Amino acid sequence: MIEVKIYLFAYGSMKKGFKNHYRLENDNLIGEATTKEKYNMYPAASFNYPYGIENDKTWQLRGELYELTSTDIEEIDIFEGAPDYYYRKEIEVLCDDKKYKCFIYFRTSTNPTGMDTDVPLNAWTKEFEFVGIKNEDFLDALRIALLKKNKNDSADRFISYLKNDNE
Fold first, then answer.
1. Is there a domain that residue 1 lies in?
2. What pTM was estimated for this model as a whole?
3. Is 21 a residue whose pLDDT tops 90?
4. Domain residues for 148?
5. Catalytic one among 80, 90, 129, 167?
6. On the CB side of 160, how many CA atoms lie within 13 Å of its CA?
7. What is the distance, to the nearest Å, from the Cα of residue 138 to the centroid of all Cα atoms in its chain?
8. Cis peptide before 112 (omega within 30 of 0)
9. Active-site annotation holds for 67
10. Does 165 map to a domain?
11. Looking at the structure, do residues 84 and 149 belong to the same domain, yes or no?
């Protein structure tokens, strides 16, 4: 039986040390990689994660190359919201002076989630993720304040939900 190796180029929140890395932590990290072709990347409007853009040929993206040994690519499709939010495409990356064919996820043109096109990127860093986490905290606090202002018992349920979710 021929074993087919599946490689994934992670450029955002699934990279090592980032909030969604747990999805790839049991797979084989080959190393830091760069796309052979030029693309672009923009943060989501919330700054929680980036969007790779296929048809905006600005620079080579930097990320990590993984050999999927325990994760099924279809699991990643579901996580990425393919085919509605992202689409999967095979590209070439350079890693340790070798070329690899791997999958990447690009933002679909019909993705309803906003992105900040004033901030083009070639690499996603912890500073961006930190801003996204702070945005989430701020939005949670804002929701609580609005619910309390409206004297809605939903505020107590929302606070309970947040406490249970973060324990």
1. no
2. 0.76
3. yes
4. 125-167
5. 80
6. 5
7. 20
8. no
9. no
10. yes
11. no
Residue 89 is encoded by which pair of tokens?
A: 């495409």
**Phi first, then psi: what are they for 122, rounded to 5°?**
-115, -5
Q: Are residues 39 and 53 in the same domain?
A: yes
Tell me the mean pLDDT in the region 21-37: 96
Coil, strand or helix at 9: strand
Overall size of the chain counted in residues:
167
Instruction: Looking at mean pLDDT, say which of 18-27, 111-120, 153-162 comes out highest.
Output: 18-27
CB atoms within 10 A of CB 88: 16
The count of structural domains within the chain is: 2
Judge if 12 and 82 occupy the same domain: yes
**Two structure tokens written together for 78:** 């579901």
Task: Write out 43-71 in H/E/C secondary structure.
Answer: EECCCCCEEEECCCCCECCEEEEEECCCC
What would the two tokens of residue 40 be?
Answer: 């672009």
Q: Residue 31 pairs with which residues in a beta bridge?
A: 65
For residue 158 the two structure tokens come to: 């929302």
Q: What is the CATH number of the domain that holds 24?
A: 3.10.490.10
* Tokens 């064919």 -> residue: 101
Helices 126-149 and 154-165: crossing angle in degrees, nearest 10, is: 150
